[in-house]
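Justification of resources, computational component.

The compute hours requested in this renewal are based largely on the per-chain cost of generating structure records like the one below. Each record pairs the submitted sequence with a full structure-token output. That output is archived, and it is also reused by downstream analysis tasks.
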Amino acid sequence: MKSFNVYKHPTLGIEAVKVGFSWPAFFFGIIWMLVKKLWGLAGGWFAMYLALSLIEKITDQSGERGYQALVYPILAAGYFALWLIPAFKGNKWREESLTKRGYEQLSTVHAETPEATVAQVEQTLSPASTLSLMTSSFSNTVPHENKAASRPSTVVDVDRIYAAIANELEGGVADKGLWIRLFAESGGDENQTKVLYIKQRADRLISAERSRLEQAVREEAQRLRVAEEERIRSLSIRERIQQGLIDPQTVVNEVGSIGIQFLAMCRWADLRKLKEMVEEHPILLATTDSEGNTPLHIVVQERGNDVIRYFVKMGADKNVRNLRGQSAIDLAAKMTQDVADILDSP
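The structure output for this chain reads:
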């Protein structure tokens, strides 16, 4: 029976890596590295192979027997090392690669093949048995009105897990493969088998529950981050300044003379050029001319309907007033109905 380190990714699933020597890496070398997505190591291996081949070719062409007698043994050792090192280090390299790609180690499992290992872990993590019962019973203890507001915890309810295992022992063992293996290892002693089963089953369920809770926390953090980004995008430039999301001084510092150029270009209502400038400097929408007119004031006066729609979409404030006390909405009311309709729309 072999030992496998098991790694799990939130979206890419489960990978089992054998502990120790890798025969596939020994026999297939660079092909194995490419299959396992060890791109950098495969490139380094190939570069070393080319270097050895080049040295061999130069040695062959030299015709100097003394030199060849010295170099050929070194080349032979180099070629042998190229095949041997991945065999001893390959699985360790793969574990490091999985960690860098976002996998987390769950446990070490004894099995015959990687496929059997993955199947065993998937059965342990399956929500169809103990964990689903445990999760549903936990959900029933949370008042309905507080579920949306409560934030997921990463604290595993260990007592509940042991209670679930007790129910398993009373109603029939859930993980029969684990029970049979432990029964054999304990020499048929049922009491010792129970003790070992409780310990190892608890370790598996705690690990699985911890992974589930950590995933829930990550998903909640992502949901809150997206919600906050959406909230900020929905704010006008002025609201962002009022809420401290933008320092007013950055309006001057960031755009400088570009703001003057931008205000001048607004009178031409060239959507393509204005869009390029806004995407590079969104804060341009907060600039004003000597009369207090924002870019939105100007494009309303020029009846640039497409530009008006774009500025409003990007958060330009329709209610900012110029030095005459006029907002963009006030100016639109004096224009044609289609201009007014754009600013009246939510």
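Confidence is low (pLDDT under 50) at residues 127-150. The chain has 18 helices and three strands.
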